[in-house]
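User: Structure please.
Assistant: Input sequence and predicted structure:
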Amino acid sequence: MGRSLNCRPLAGSLALAVSLAAVAAQPANPPARRGAEPMAMPRGVARALGDARIVIDGVVDEWPAASPLLLLDTRQVSGTAMRAYLGPSDLSAQAFLVWDAEDLYVAVKVKDDWHRPLGAKVYGVSEIPPADSVLLTFDPERDTRALGHDLGRTDDREFWLADVEGAGKGQVVLWNRFGGTATWVEGGALAVARDDQLKVTTYEARIPWKAILKGGRKPEVGMVFDFQIVVSDFDEVTDVMAQTRIGWTFGTGPRIDPGLLGSVMLLGDVDGPVIDLPEFPSPPSPSEDAVPGPRYWIELHDALRATRPVVFRADAGDPRAAIGAERRRRLETLDGHLAAFPRVDFLEFQQRIHRRMSRECAGIIATGLPYYWDHVLAEVRRRVEVAVPEHGVRVFRLPQSGWLVLSKQAKFAIDPAGYDVDKAFYEVLDFVLLTDPLDMTKRNDQLLIRMLLTGKAFASHVRFHLPGIDASKVELVQPGGRFDRNGLRIAVLGVQNEQGVSASVGYHVQWPDGLTIVHSGLSASVEQLPPDGRKVDLLILSAEHDAPAVAGQRIAAELTVLDDVFLCPRRPGGHPRVSLEGAFELQSWLLPCASVLLAPGESWTVSR
């Protein structure tokens, strides 16, 4: 018999509330846990319900004594920067599982100093809703190994529990990560209750086994499934991202491995909580890597570097053939990986970056496509030191999204996004231009915060939440207006009228010698260009523009480079990503204007 690794017995259902209430007595500012010993891999049990009956009402008095899954240790916390986390009284939790032949019952007691429900007006299940919540992940086959396109995740089921303002009782949400969608769980039930005096939120749910297990599989005593529970805490009323998260397996190492789940065993109708755990069977041994490892991505990048970007012109025939068979094959391989990366994974990665959840980010970039982005970013950073041309401007396509623009007069970025962009380029940059500030995949909040706090500028035409920053202090640029930065003349391309401002703007940037670069944003047109600046040397044209071919032909730059290609899926519903094939078609539509596709990390030099 083995001891429980993260499963401490409680005397009964009353302890479900009392144990978390006692957390308030712990220090508000816990000591840093740097270098602390990692926690053991957690294991837990779900006891059979027996003759007891549970009513889903947010009150757990009728629950039988159960052994908790503990989320009480500061090593399990992600997101502690800028005083986002003030100790266990700010965020900690315990979860309890019981089962019968038809359903699994889940109770989660969360200690949280301020509870944020989901506003009724933003109630929806297609995205990542901004509300305190509990995410339950089940891996019945115990074969999940990594974030991203790990086929071991195809049988996984993820359930989202949250309090909807004014609803009382609610429904359990089933996430489909690979499709980026969500549905209600048929036969499921949820109730959320808040005790403001104890500062405890109770989540109580019933989840049918048929929603957890596939192929008609039935639960039985001794069955083991891998499991994760993550509690997200939203402590800012205007923030759409969680500032802090705590997870069952988050304490098992210096970085948080997103493919690492704990294990739960179904027990029979036992009398009282379980102190000693039975032996757990080992998960199946993988036959191959869940996702391609580092060597694969390094070799893919090296193979792409061995080919060169090719300008497609009117006399070049088909853009697919113009770039050469070897380059096209490499780009198709990369585009396939990008298309397969689950959309919700990508969006959550951005949220972890923005809220400086460093250990989660370190775990995410250890494997798969995020490793590739990080590898390419490191190479761009090394090249930047010697990349500034004596004459003209050099433009880098950043690995994940955005552009780095280097010249003797100024060094700036347009829509810089991705992990560690702030560390890589903060010292380099004079300023930042944002075309679509409300799109979290087109910015890096940590970079913007550092710039604001040290007197550097970034241009945004709308305000948005930045942790620790008074939004009123962010200086806005006006669509249709102009400003100067480091000797450059910059015009903001967009519309401002009685109906409001453009969701996205473009920029017209002119150097003292007349060299001009334009970024189209999602809607900029030739009519918005300054009358004295219609000659454009380089157009960075969004492939997601309202009318990209029309805008490109009418602006008629000397060279057009396509933006918003080589991206992961990031928009819901009827807004698919622009594929490599779609980029080739756009190049054909742009004729007679010359265009070029830059892969992540590639650059182009522009001169008069």
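Confidence is low (pLDDT under 50) at residues 1-5, 7-32.
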